[in-house]
Amino acid sequence: MPDLHFEPDQRLWLLCTPSTSYAIRLDENDDVRHVHWGAPLTPAQARELGARTPPAGSSFDTAGGAEEIAVEGGARFGAAGLQVRFADGTRGVEWHYAGHDIDGGHLSIHLDDRHYPLRVTLHYRVHDDGDVIERWTTLENRSSAELIAVQRSDSAAWTLPVAGRRVSHLVGGWNSEFQLRQAEVPTAETVFTSRRGMTSHHANPWLALDDGTATEEHGDVWSTALAWSGSWRITLQRDPRGRTTWTGGYGHEGLTWSLAPGESLETPVFAGLFTTGGFGAASRSWHEHVRRHVLTHPGEPRPVLYNSWEATGFDVDEPGQTALAARAARLGVELFVVDDGWFGERVSDHAGLGDWTPNPDRFPNGLRPLSAEVHRLGMQFGLWVEPEMVNPDSDLYREHPDWVLHMAHRSRTEMRQQLVLNLARPDTAAWAHAWLDRLVAENDIDFLKWDANRPMTEAGWPGHPDPDRVWIEQTRAVYQILDRLRADHPRLRIEACSGGGGRADLGVVARTDQVWTSDNTDPVDRIGIQHGFSQLFPAQVMGAWVTDSPNVATARRTPLRFRFHVAMAGALGIGGDLAKWTEDELKEATGLIATYKRIRPAVQHGTAYRLAGDGTLTAVGYRYEDQFVVLAWCPSRPFGHQPGPLRLTALDPGASYRDQDTGAVHSGAVLLRSGLPLALPDGDHASVLVHLVRIGS
């Protein structure tokens, strides 16, 4: 049972996870103040810390320490996470403590405005099997008649107990997602954000903070992640005294939505964790949290899939897909996915999006015969869809031009020749769910690749009394459709995609089974993309494909073995044109897929350790039961340079380990101290897989 304490004399709460403690208190004005986030505390130690009141620096600063919800009003000058305006024009809040509830590991602290009918509840949830603390906020208009204008409602504010000197975050773009960056935290406000209506390729709502000395395996790290798939903003502030705080939630600048009488607004979860084990331990804690408390089917192996996109593009028909399916089955593929081009007048990306019925010229008897054949071959059947978008050149748009996001007297910006459907409208959302439900049921579909290939623009709702609400309701509608589909079709599995990795966060992962990490399948680029992705997400949700050489995005030529070894670090997929693969390539691929299935339990369900060797040599090790699997890659090296042995971690120094492929036996102590010799091929783009099994102590 999670450990929560309340000290009524000091009005202090202590939340304890297996390895950390989190303490907060009410001050004399009923503001909820941060006390501690870090190493475990006893209740007595928490009381001692809670009695301290950080002094003000001058008359231009306030005393009392950082607040748990950064509000507007009074002598507060930092970034406000809660901004409201009441019916008479008054802004800001003054709190009155209205009690708290403890239900297992869930603490709810209720705060009422002293004059206006606003109740805010701060939520905290801890688990007895991990150190992640989940936080969110609920706003309730307790008036019977008056609206409350909400201009910002963040999920939580976090406070670093030490001077935050370095921030780790993820940046990128299409085809270059999840690039890990580390920078000094300036004495200023730094904003991390997406204003695109989705998580975005360009930034991710995950941060890690440290004092500048943490490494992969050592040092104190504080990390947070927002579970939201729409626009978001996190504001990080370091003041001149070194105090570092950050506040985050959905939405972005300039939006206002109305909270009606009796209505509540619940923000997404903004989760955080602390570890003394460096960035690697932080990642492993996130991975376990995702498996235990986010994913709906964490114990299932993700199947080896084949996707037809790079083989056919929009030239999709039943004979061609049937032939590809037969080749894929012979390789050992377990899931066959038909990509874009199967529906309406979809012969390019200029038309047909929104007309979700099979093209009669390409599939004269619909999709059912292909689905049946794929199942006969022993594979599951999957399909690409893009339910949130529409081409103006479509029957749907011609019939319902008002169903898209738009503003009166403004142009409708097309990106990729498409517009965004307003799924916040009940009629549009009902239509989207109905055709998806019918498609899955009538064609015995096992898997959907759910794509979204453009951001939101002209995000308006003409005629609606509260049009800015669409920025929140659009994402909620996507969540609701996903939730309904999964409830009605329990064996359906879904991959989240947004032009690659444009929608990857804890909110969408709670409703899908894996994420398409990037449209860039170049294995050299993928090493960096996957490294960044692994900071938060476990390998089992990371879609990773083997495609053709030269690569379609970069024109880089790489060996098939190297492409496989990089993709085998996640949920393996094949995306090349199998009709053009040689017999030798098909034979090699068949063997590598069989090897992947052997190591899949370790990769998808094991504990991951990022490893670094000489030069460009990097690797990931997966510890699972008595196994330790190493995937190592060396993209380039000087002539004559052979990287030295790769030092491993998380092994038993008193045990021995046998290489399952060579039969060599290694001492655990030697592997930890002196490393594992790697039989890397000569030249660039070299890689190796080593599968070690413990054989005794």
What does this structure look like?
There is one protein chain. With 697 residues, this protein is α+β, with helices and mostly antiparallel strands. The chain has 3 domains: 69-293, Beta-galactosidase, Chain A, domain 5 (Distorted Sandwich), CATH 2.70.98; 305-605, TIM Barrel; 611-696, Golgi alpha-mannosidase II (Immunoglobulin-like, Sandwich), CATH 2.60.40.1180. Helix content is 21%, strand content 29%. The protein has 13 helices and 37 strands. Strands 6, 7, 8, 9, 12, 13, 15, 16, 20 and 21 form a 10-stranded antiparallel β-sheet that branches. An 8-stranded parallel barrel has the order 22-23-24-27-28-29-30-31, surrounded by 5 helices. β7 and β8 form a beta hairpin. α4 (318-331) runs parallel beside α5, α7 (426-442) runs parallel beside α8 and α10 runs parallel beside α11 (560-567). The longest helix has 23 residues, at 583-605. The chain is globular, with a radius of gyration of 27 Å. The model has no long low-confidence stretch (mean pLDDT 95). It comes from Paractinoplanes tereljensis. Keywords: Glycosidase, Hydrolase. Belongs to the glycosyl hydrolase. Its EC number is 3.2.1.22. Residues 625-692 form the Glycosyl hydrolase family 36 C-terminal domain.
